[in-house]
User: Fold these one by one.
Assistant:
Number 1:
Amino acid sequence: MQIDDGPVRRITFDRPDVRNAMTAAVARELADALADLDPEEHDAVVITGEGDAFSAGGDIEAMAERAETTPEAYERVRTTLGRVAENALSAPVPIVAKVNGDAVVAGMSLTAISDFAYAGDSARFGATFVNVGLVPDMGATAILPRLIGLRKTKELAFTGDLVDANEAAEMDLVNETVPDDDLDDRVADLVETLRNRPTANIGLAKEAIHDNLGQPWRDGLRREARLQSMAYDTPAHDEGVDAFLNGRKPDFD
């Protein structure tokens, strides 16, 4: 995995010979790269793949070589794929999946748990865990029903069927599908927009949205009020109000 740090942390799966299949080691590295994000230093994260695939999911050859008990498998999944999902969903900065090719199994899960996802029109998606006798993981069972609906989630999880990029956009798995040659520019435009927004406050909004998924609305209102009160006490709020009152664009550092 290649990680280029800066105001935008860029993470690239770099195993194109195996279509960027994800081993436990790769998942741990990805989880670590999503764990130490700081809105004071980072405006966004962009995740993509080298070559013609985003990620083809788990490494089947590595699966064949495993010899572990059920408790050992549980611990491995929780500390690898589970950590990726947990760190992505709780990251205080927006995460963008730039889906440059097929995103299946864990690749589709990663697309789902990202805050934004843009796909090239040649990409295909599939929760094909069932094809190797597995259950969707990396947060897929928690997020996909909320994102694309219960019936569509079951259809993909139970059949292992693939969908193309246009259908992925229609079901809200990705924000938008663009021609492959335009994908870099489209994501760059989004990242530029995000860099001109108050990152810490975006993190508060993300926390509120995720914490309230599936929760009673009264509890959600309390969480929302708590996070909004925190947002009121930020420099970004002061700058936004001042800019509005003075008829200028806000300058969020």
Number 2:
Amino acid sequence: MENSLYTTLNRQSGLMAEMRVIANNIANASTTGFRAEGVVFAEYVARLGPGSPSLSMANAEGRLVNDAQGALAQTGGPFDLAIEGDGYFLIETPAGNRMTRSGAFLASADGELVTTDGMRLLDAGGSPVAVPAGAEKIAVGGDGTVSADGVPVAQIGLWAPAGATGLVADGATRFDAPDGVEPTTGGKIFQGFLEQSNVNAVTEIARMIEVQRAYELGQGFLDSEDRRIRSVIEATGKS
């Protein structure tokens, strides 16, 4: 019976990890550029001995980023940018370069395009994107070309993770690419738009209810086993 207890405790731990991910998805259902996540489980199978059944346990190994397209909302802001299709913006942070689909940018005092917390947007060559002071009209083309009063001055890069590791979440809307990044041409940039979160709130709530019921079922089994073991100990003590 100890094996069933260990298996149930392991299952409860995995369900708690999944519940935390679901709660984070729901909390960011209105966050610009947010990507929903799911939990990746790995199964471990151990032999219990000749002629005995095997023991299977699942462990929450990591998170999987949902790369589905979010809806585009028009804002009209000259530095609000959204990507339709593949690719991410690349920004410079103290922890290293990070990828994001959150395209709410501002022009800094130095004329560089930065995020709302001051992280610089990088161009197709990995350098900061700057716009000249005094330009009356800034236009951004679908390929990322930035023009000031009709003169091209920079090209915003679109990037994808290189290698098989993919993306690792680093905050609400930023991602690290452990295997590095590489340019991609699979996306198109829209000026004056922002990409909304790709979280489906109805689906996430349904998942939350399902996980909660599964957790309650496991907790009921653990409570039943606790009462059974206590009864055995009390009966043994009286004999």
Number 3:
Amino acid sequence: MDSVFLNKAAAAVLLSIATAWICSAVGSTVVPITAPAKPAFSVPGTENVPIAPYMAHADADHGEELAHQICSSCHALVSAASDGVGPNLAGVAGRPRASITGYAYSSALAGQKAHVWSDQALSDWLTSPARFAPGTRMSLVGISSPAQRADIIAYLHTLAE
């Protein structure tokens, strides 16, 4: 290979990159990125519903079974236990969000330190963690049944720090 060929190849690569960048800049100027004012559709079971009526009939024993099935693979459910992949859930009900020292929360939750984990907030979180805090690292898709969420929240109330 001679230097003329290498110069032509380098020029082709640089011009391709410059052309792609210019096309991207012009495209984003001409077609602005906008979100619709109202979603086109909603997946059933992912709407945030008031949890208070379900909490009146919540079963903490059933919530314990559900929490051990769903939550215990990533979270500790015992006071003074070390954090797992997720933070320890002992005392989470009523605790400020992202408040366990030493646990590296995602920026999605770290920005919510001024808020408290109320029953409604816990329910909204369990409905869809990704929608509640976009960018969260929690991989749970969500729990669609409000009765099951209420049972889990009732169980979380029994866990003391």
